[in-house]
Amino acid sequence: MSSVSLALFIFGVCYLVIITERIHKTIVALFGAAVMIGLGVLSQDEAFYSHEFGVDYNVVFLLIGMMVIVNIVRETGLFEVLAIWAAQRADAKPFRLLVLLSLLTAGLSAMLDNVTTILLMAPVTLSITKRLELNPIAFLVTEVLASNIGGTATLVGDPPNIMIASKAELGYLDFLEVLAPVVMIIMAVFIVSIWGLFGRNMTVAPHLRSAVLALSSRDAVPDRPFLHRCLWLLGIINVGFCLHSLIHLEPATIALLGASAFMLLGHARRKPEDGEELSYLTDVEWKTIFFFIGLFILVGGLVKVGVIRYLADQLVVATQGNLGGATMAVLWGSALLSAAVDNIPYVAAMNPLIVDLARSLHPEISDYAELVHQPDILPLWWALALGACLGGNGTLIGASANVVMVDIARKAGYRISFWQFFKFGFPVMIGSTLISSLYLWFLFLR
């Protein structure tokens, strides 16, 4: 069996088992990753140390750092305060609350990133839906879809955008100017669609509404000075995320520095017994972390044998010379493939392909910035960004935020299956990609 066939077989079997949910996805991903290495599709060095094929430790340590931070912030009562604020602003009416939380999630995702936002918003959602005796699954799924949409709008909202910005030499304002308008359109359509899905069926008993509206956020904060210190530290960390390219620190490093500072803050406050401070680490969702490690290696095998690059080549080469066809092929191909595999290695394969295409179409241009900003190349960058980011809504494993949300729900006692997520997420992905198609045509192709 060739290395290509072997990699496809291993990935396909693992994917099918994850879909059936007969075995926990973390076990499947780690087993598949071990088989990839054991059968020589990837070497151990490539799996663990290669930037191109191996584990993306930026994502792994960003997740670990943010999970530690959220575990400590939970003790301040901040999530309860936000939950009470959201419920009272929505007059404790379920659909208004759903819309408010979705818009808040999308906005935070644009400023931070979608994984961090879900880590912050999921506890808020679980808290307020518990008080109103509502099933949180509709809220959590809606919020994670909104987070992936909102994260598309800015350079820092989703890791693929950071990668594209670096390769295409595009700035924060470029992303905001081109992508923010279509994201706002998509969010408006999304809100209308969730009214049709959930709006008519959500009700809350009058006595629960009255009880929530009578709550005081002050009562939810056990230690106000500790809350204030945590808020200052959260603010510093978020500024670090926004300025990471200027201060030459990766988001993972900022998250780990922040997590360490938060643990010191928590230790100084509680004066725990020996070893008790490590509860901040034991509460990390390690099953989620190891799932991502396995998934990175599985997808890295596909990248190593050239499957991802081959698919990317076919998307662009099939329509070479036709700007409209190439743009739509990149957009829709990126959306569908990013729903099936992690979008980070996919974008890593597509970036050099678009640069190569630019060189073949404009051999007379030697200046790199001028080359990648040509009018017939720029739409391809935006199509790649929209497709890769919005495609994450297609399946449960299409985006890191989806996996994090599902594991938070499971820990709280609510199971969200692959097909349950697919039923809501895939239509949203198709609809948002269709809107993006019309937007790109209007902006660049008409």
Automatic annotation (TrEMBL):
InterPro entries assigned: Arsenical_pump_ArsB, Cit_transptr-like_dom, Diverse_Ion_Transporter
Provide the membrane topology annotation.
Multi-pass membrane protein
Where it mainly occurs, coarsely classed, is: membrane
Please give an example of a GO cellular component term from this record: plasma membrane
The transmembrane residues are 26-43, 97-122, 175-198, 226-246, 289-312, 380-404, 424-444
Limits of the Citrate transporter-like domain? 15-387
Q: Which PANTHER family match?
A: P PROTEIN (PTHR43568)
Q: Which family does it belong to?
A: Belongs to the CitM (TC 2.A.11) transporter family.
**Protein's name according to its UniProt entry:** Citrate transporter-like domain-containing protein
